[in-house]
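Exercise (ungraded).
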Amino acid sequence: MKAKHIAVLAEKDLKRVVREPASLLMLLIFPLMLNLAFGVAFGGVGSSGPSDFQIGLVNLDASSSHPEWAGRLIGNLTSTDGILLKQYLDNASGQSDLIQGNLDAFIVIPNGFGNSCESFWAAPTNASQWTNTTIGLYVDSGSMIATSAVPAIVQQVVLRTMFGDVRTSVDLPVVISSPALIAASTYSQWDFMAPGMFAFAAMFITMTVAQSMTTEREGGLLKRLAATPMTNSEYMLGQTISNMAIAVVQVMIILLTAFLIGYRPATNAAGLAFAAAILVAFSLVSVGFGLIAATISKSADIATGAAFIFIMPQMFLGSFVPLGGLAETVGVFMPSKYVTDALTTLFLRGAPIATLSIWVDFTIVLVTGVVVVLLGILMFGKVGKK
Amino acid sequence: MSRNRWSTNLQASAKQSTNPNESAIEIHNLTKRYGTKTAVAGLNLRIGWGEIFGLLGPNGAGKTTTVNVLSTLLSPTEGTAEVGGYDVVNKPQNVRSIIGLCPQQPAFYPFLTGRENIQLFGKLHSMPKDVLKERTDLLIKKIGMEDDADRRAGQYSGGMTRRISTIMALIHDPKVALLDEPTVAMDPVSRRAVWDFIRELRAQDKSIVLTTHYMEEAEHLCDRVGIIDEGRLIELGTPSELIKKYHAKDLEDVFVQRTGKKLAEAV
């Protein structure tokens, strides 16, 4: 394998991107426009201020023997930034307002909630002594942001109600740490979507790779190249390297654009460097899928469709679209989900770069990228030039 | 990489260091099938150094398939083929390093200039930078494209793309040139320029395989021709020998007498 051959082929591909308006548009301007459009639409630009969640609540435990717990929960909800709490006298009125879109979420404090809290503190280590109750939580399914954020916020408030702000040392069957509460009032919808959008923008390399390779094949260039001393591996590595270089530029454009439109991730320079690294690793996945799409496609038009076979599931099951139920289960197979998860942990939760989970995400994405590229090279070497 | 390996002046280029008793190309019982269709059937052929060999026949006769096997793009179904003493199946990398393939359809990168297309293929043959530049300039001048070489190839006329495509195949000074219909759809001036160029290659002891369905081209250019029809080699000899053998007025007439059909009809 000759490094010079790889460099020559990569240089050729980079010239294509610079000189062909369609390629330039797809690879650089498209993510930029996407970023701007979503940023404007979902609050990164021109928003009048922080968005609050309208949450309704009915307290069915007011007349119990321990009404103070419900009162404490209501107090904590009221004092939480970003929540506008509206109390209802009955369940039906609140549900009605939720259905009509007047609320983002509706909480039902059940009868027996106070007894349940008391039973816990009476025997913190003996679950068989507890009186279990369930807080009803109904969220507006039409609001992506509410479905993502409200359950987490409510969970945090419940924990604070039961344990206070001090980390508990009580031995529970399920250990719950005391993470810092999300100050939702400082976030716009764009803040919640941005990590997924960054992953989404990096997916389109799949289509570019698939199209460029099938175009070369249709034009007889692959056969012509195959009659030179260039090897299959050199060709593939040339493709991979040129597209990785493009990915680096894409990542910089996306992060810079996001910053310019007001996006301020809760991380530092090291976090941003990590974000760039995981996005570049993810572009390796996208290149690999592009190689596979090129292999199974006989023309550039078909390659476009084939590329979407890889892009769409990753978009809907692993980027800015909130997941639930089956989608969440299937989502674990989407490399983009791990990128979104890591970026959310960094940018939204403000986790430090030493956080184990983001390195697990990074490793999964990188290993997947290497495997997919190798698979792409293998498949293309066997049938790709025909 | 030794600079001496590469010639920058076609006229002054050293002769190939080849054994005169050794064939440039040897084909034994070559058969290529696609499913039930036989594209080439039992082809036997020896082509020498310093020889222009013409493979003649209509479209679909098996000419391009033969060239694709010689250029390692296709594997034979049966039989063997050697180029420069290297087996095309067992030593494909050695074969690729000594051949220059000009495909039937000019294949080039439209977003690169003519010069960049040529140099891309020179670099893939690991040509030294200075030699590549000198040789590129020389060949561009030879095909009369000095004024257009730095324009994007996507803006070229059909004739210009064919000329550039031919130079892309020959930039690295290959020992064996495989030229598949190099002058199709070319204007007469460009065609003459390519013919002159091919003759110069012969003067350097290169081996040239030329496929064409222009009988006039074969008569003027080729030392020997093989007429191929429906995958079979039906005649082999110098143009004059074949014309004399069939008492024909030209190679077109030979083809008609041998196959009972006009080449134009067959095409």
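Further reading is listed at the end of the chapter. For now, observe: Chain A has two domains: 3-45+189-384, 53-186. Chain A touches chain B through 21 residues (CB under 8 Å).
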